[in-house]
Amino acid sequence: MTAPFDLRTLQVLTFGRSSVDLYPEQHNVALADVDTFRKSIGGSPTNVAAAAARLGRRAALINRVGNDPFGEYIRRGLRRFGVHDGFITTDPDLLTPVVFCELLPPEEPSIYFYREPRGPDMNVTVDDLPVDAIRSVPLFWASASLFAAEPSRSAAMEALRLRARSAHTVIDLDYRPMFWESREQATEFISPSIDMCTVAVGNRDECEIAVGTRLPDEAADRMLERGVSLAVVKLGAEGVLVATAESRTVIDPIRVPVVCGLGAGDAFGGSLCHGLLAGWDPTEIVTRANAAGAIVAGRLMCSDDMPTAAEIDHLLETGIVPERIVS
């Protein structure tokens, strides 16, 4: 029998989509010509929770899945990773999303979302929110994709209001064009979240959506001016800019042979959560998060391949993506 969940032990709570991800076992092959796939649970906030749990954090996810076998597959997978699934509701009408990726090339895979007419994550309501958990958890992570439609838009804003900008409240600027009617609509609903969070994370494109510029230092300045205490701007092959009111630096990328570029940002996110909770210096936090992302880029899967602390140490010491090391 599973022990009752103790809210007092919760450290990381993420909010957003889940999916069943299918990864080609043949690389550099067009999707139409792929013969076999490997299945895993995915969705960025789901992967972040799994990554944090792999690093020893007590994590949970708020979301909806379909009333179908894939919904049960996601629940079982989360429990296997040590992520609490009690805040996931079941949608009576929508199917659990399926995502295919095409590793052509592996560094920049194409992603195909099957979410018709839409994903159940967009149907999370205010009534679905675990209010006490949102208020009390040391770190809350929300995905900006929640703002793409109602009722999840209102639920996400209510969750941020419940947080009252307490540390640590993280917005992942997570812009997926296929979820939105236009870039202008995305700006309208993502930008206000900056004013309700203590940490903002995004790449150049996502920063342009949220704060109107893709220039890294200017984007960081605008987020800090709006009350964010830590701004993280991902620069792709140029590394990551990490900025606070007192300091800023660019952390160099860690170059590894890429097997699949998907999930690296989510591994980064899970490690970022871990470092924030540990109280590390921002440079150390992002250095280790960079390494976590590089490890997943050097592996095929996302949630299944999230790194342990020992694996991050190994990469930072040797420059080599390790085989599985248990911390």
Give a quick precis of the structure:
It contains ten helices and 14 strands. It is of the alpha/beta class. The protein has one domain (7-318): 3-Layer(aba) Sandwich (UDP-N-acetylmuramoyl-L-alanine:D-glutamate ligase).
Give start-end ranges of low-pLDDT stretches: none
Task: Provide the residue-averaged pLDDT.
Answer: 95
**How many structural units, i.e. domains?**
1
Give the ordered list of helices and strands.
Answer: EEEHEHEEEEHEHEHEHHEEEHHH
> In total, how many beta strands?
14
How much helical structure, as a percent, in the residues?
Answer: 25-40%
Number of helices: 10
Largest sheet, in brief, is: 10 strands, mixed
**CATH homology group:** Ribokinase
CA radius of gyration: 18 Å
For the terminal residues, how far apart are their CA atoms?
26 Å
Query: Could you please say which CATH topology applies here?
Result: UDP-N-acetylmuramoyl-L-alanine:D-glutamate ligase
Counting helices, strands and paired strands, the structural category is alpha/beta
- General shape: globular
Which architecture name does CATH use? 3-Layer(aba) Sandwich
* Share of residues in strands: 15-25%
